[in-house]
Amino acid sequence: MMKCYALVLPGLEHLCRQEVKELLSVRAVGSAGLVEFAAAKEDFFRYAFRAQAVQRVLIALGKCKDVDSFSCDAALPWADFFPTSFSFKVEVEHIKGQENRFLIARTIAGKMFSVLEPQGFKPVLELKTPDFLILVYFTGKEYAVGIDVASELASRHYRVFTHQASLKGDLAYAIIRASGFVAGEKLVVGFVKDGTLAIEAALFANALPVPKALSLAKFPMYAKASALPVGTGSTVVYGFDESAQNIIAAQKNSLLAGTKNCLQLRSHPLEELDIAVAEQSCDRIIFHLTSKDESKINELYRQVMYVLKPKGALLIFSISALELPIPTTFLLKKKAIFQKGDNKYRVWVLQKK
Q1: Torsion of CA 117, 120, 121, 123, to 10 degrees
Q2: Which of 29, 99, 154, 239 suits a disulfide with 189, CB 3.0-4.6 Å?
Q3: Is-same-fold flag (2-153; 156-223+231-352)?
Q4: Residue 77: which residues within 8 A CB-CB, separation 6 or more?
């Protein structure tokens, strides 16, 4: 088994632990943006392609409270991680001050040389285009050091045609999961913008690979494991937007994401949702409200009442300080706030009576 770290947006640790359990059937622990677990090499390969709740995935090298005392375990299977000759750089996250980050990076780089060179490896520091990235993540109490496997996963390769209210993949996935959506249910995503929410739902429900490719072949242990995991689901997600331009962007992004066959995207007004979707046919409905959409809340409730099944869930989220009115036809099941930088995403989960 190989020790691994998942770096997550603070507040998504529980979701990340849940995802690890679902994908790997192993227990994960952690907080403060760092989740730890152990996995077999083959399982970790699949996890790197399927994980949606993470920002980065690392092969763990160890933790310490003081970088000067950090010690790389010489018994680690280094030949699985690195070829004989390679270049690397060290980056530091969650530490203020460029000089402080530089000193930590230099110290960890020295530790890497001291353990690798005696074993016959020939590492070289390369700051622009290194073969490998060693990441140092400070949780506020300790430093976690690991080999970055897939760079910034949360940015998502498919987010080429973006919207000003666009979300990163990990946050969009968290909102999808907050609704309670599972594979096999009928989900409608309203006001899809650039399609990220609907795409993340389709990836999750159909067990599709999130990145199209990862440079894992550079790791000796994955030199022959280049095939993408195959999706196993047949759930179709429906999304709409009142802007034809948004739908075109979402369709292009969906094609890049590989979700074209499990995502139906259409342009029509909110008032026509009851024409596009059958009465009481939906298990879950998600709406992304921007300030210009807030005036439509009454029509939104009217349309949702028509197409949502009894006991079905409606999730509404907005970045504005919206005071959401709750109709008597719905029960408020959950309120949450997801923090991303200075932005607060307010989430309400309602249940139709």
Answers
A1: 40
A2: 239
A3: no
A4: 221
pLDDT of 190 > 70? The answer is: yes
* Nearest alpha-carbon partner for 267 in 327, 213, 193: 193
Average pLDDT over residues 276-292: 95
What are the residue ranges of helices labelled H in 123-261?
169-178, 196-205, 244-257
DSSP classification of residue 138: E
- If phi > 0 it is left, if psi is from -120 to 50 it is alpha, else beta; for residue 280 that is left
Q: Is the pLDDT of residue 229 over 80?
A: no
Query: For the residues 266-290, what does the mean pLDDT come to?
Result: 96
- Structural class in CATH, domain 2-153: alpha beta
Q: Span 80-89, mean pLDDT?
A: 97
278 burial via Cβ count (<10 Å: 0-12, 13-18, 19+): exposed
Q: Which residue has the higher pLDDT, 8 or 74?
A: 8
- The helix/strand/coil state of 142 is coil
Q: Which two tokens stand for residue 173?
A: 């996935």
Q: Which residues pair with 145 in a beta bridge?
A: 62, 136
Q: Cα dihedral angle (112, 114, 116, 117), rounded to 10 degrees? A: 140
Would you list the domain boundaries of the chain? 2-153, 156-223+231-352
Confidence (pLDDT) at 342: 81
* 352 strand-pairing partners: 330
